[in-house]
UniProtKB/TrEMBL annotation:
Keyword rRNA processing: no
Pfam family, one: DUF624
Protein name, per record: Uncharacterized membrane protein YesL
Protein's organism: Halolactibacillus miurensis
Residues passing through the membrane, by range: 20-47, 77-98, 110-131, 151-176, 182-200
Keyword terms, alphabetized: Membrane, Transmembrane, Transmembrane helix
Matches recorded under InterPro entries: DUF624 (IPR006938)
Positions of the UniProt region annotated as Disordered: 213-235
Amino acid sequence: MGSNYGFVSTSFYRGLEWLWHFVYIQLLFLFSTLIGLGLFGFFPALYSTHSVMERFVKGDKQFSIFKVFVQSYKQHFFVANGYGFLFMLGVYLLTFNFNYLKVATGLEHTFLSVGWVIGVALFIVVSLYLFPTRILTEAKGKALIKNSIILALGAPVSFILLVASMGVLGFVLYMIPGFIPFLSITPFSFLLMGQLHVVVDRMIRKQAAWAEEKSGEEKANNSNVLPSYLKEKTS
C-alpha cells in the first residue's frame, strides 16, 4: 500500500500558505485603516480586501496581493467612503426610529415595528453584499442596491448557510479573541465572496441554459455574461 505522507504534507503546506495569505491581507487591512485615520480608511480597506478575495475565489494564483490591494484602495477610496457615509446614515436612521418606537403606542407602534424589522433586514442584506456586489457586477447607485437584494433573495438557502458560517466564525473569534487582529476580516470576506461567486455563476448557467433552450442551439454564446437583471448600471 502506497504512503499518503506526500498528500498530507502537500495539503499541510498548502493550508499554511492560505493561512499566511489571510494573515497578510488582514495586516494590509489594519494598516490601510490606520492610514485612512480609522473610519475613513476602514471602508476602502474593506473594499480592497473583498477585491483580493475575489481573485482567490476565481482561482487566480498569478497576481500580487499587495499590488491588487493598493490599487483597489487608491481607486475606490472616495467611492467606498461615500457608501460608508450612507451606511452610517442608515445606522443613524434605524437607531432614531428604534428610539421612537419606545414612545409609540397602539396600532402606530405595531405598524412601525413591522416596518422597522423589514428595514433592518434589508439594511443588513444590502450592507453585507454592497461592496462584493459592486466588485462582481460593477453596478452603481440604485442598481447596486437592487443587485444586492436579488443575490440574497435569489439564493435564500445559500444566504442562510453564509449567515450560519459567519455565526460559527464569530463564535470561534469570541472563544479565541487572540485571532481577531490576524484572522477576522479575511475569513469573513472569503466566505462572502465565495458564496456570491457561486450564486452569480449559478445565475449565469441558468441564463445560458434558458438561452440555449430558447434558441435551439447546442451552445449559447452568452455563457459567461451576467444576467440582464444584474447588468444594469445606474449612477
